[in-house]
């Protein structure tokens, strides 16, 4: 099973900050209220919460991205 | 049974107005980025979404109970197409306009991810047009429109939306100037 990671489109983002409220495990806010996202693959128990954060983004700037197949191989090295 | 239906039409109409007002008010508050520790952004957003779905459910029952009532005898088409029915043409036409606008807002929000932000937002603005039209339908057609409690509900709804709108007009230009 491939894991997923959270990514943000910083051009679309306008610092509503809802992602940091909903997923503080992976999202913190910088001094201007923009998200700083932990790019590591999501733990399975966080995927559901991440999906809620993605659906809640007012600007549709947050996405879940399937990790590319070769990435785990690099991680094992 | 007929008497029960008569109550259902009135009650669901009033509930739709209250829930629609709550939805618009919370949407405006969210746009102004209102939040406290006890009411974070996502709470207001979630109630905005859930209140809108509940309003849609009450609206569906309101329309179904009105079009199946044999006494007032409004055809189903009148709920969606203005000017097709001669009973209180203006009021029922207002209802049809509000209903069509809300259908557009509801469907576009359900497929927001596929639609993209720009188109979704343009359609979502129709809610601002639908709300006063829906209110006028209640004032025009509501059987309880002249009762003190219904006038009070109308006034609270207008006050709620107008104060949230004032807050939005005061805060959003400042937010976007940053």
Description of the structure:
The complex is a heterodimer of chains A (77) and B (178). In chain A, 32% of the residues lie in helices and 21% in strands. Chain A contains three helices and four strands; from the N terminus they run βαββαβα. Chain A has a two-stranded antiparallel ribbon with strand order 1-4. A two-stranded antiparallel sheet of chain A has the order 2-3. In chain A, β2 (27-29) and β3 (35-37) form a beta hairpin. Helices cover 77% and strands 0% of the residues of chain B. Chain B is globular. The termini of chain B are far apart. The relative contact order of chain B is 0.15. The interface between A and B is small, with 11 and 12 residues.
Q: What's this entry about, in short?
A:
The complex is a heterodimer of chains A (77) and B (178). In chain A, 32% of the residues lie in helices and 21% in strands.
State the end-to-end distance of chain B: 59 Å
Mean pLDDT value of chain B? 92
Category from helices, strands and their pairing of chain A: alpha+beta
SS strand fraction of chain A? 15-25%
Instruction: Report the biggest beta sheet of chain A as strand number plus sense, adding barrel if it closes.
Output: 2 strands, antiparallel
Element layout with pairings:
The complex is a heterodimer of chains A (77) and B (178).
Chain A: E1 4-8, H1 18-22, E2 27-29, E3 35-37, H2 44-56, E4 62-66, H3 70-76
Antiparallel strand pairs in A: 1-4, 2-3
Chain B: H1 2-31, H2 41-67, H3 89-110, H4 112-115, H5 117-124, H6 126-141, H7 148-177
Helix pairs in contact in B: 1-2, 1-6, 1-7, 3-6
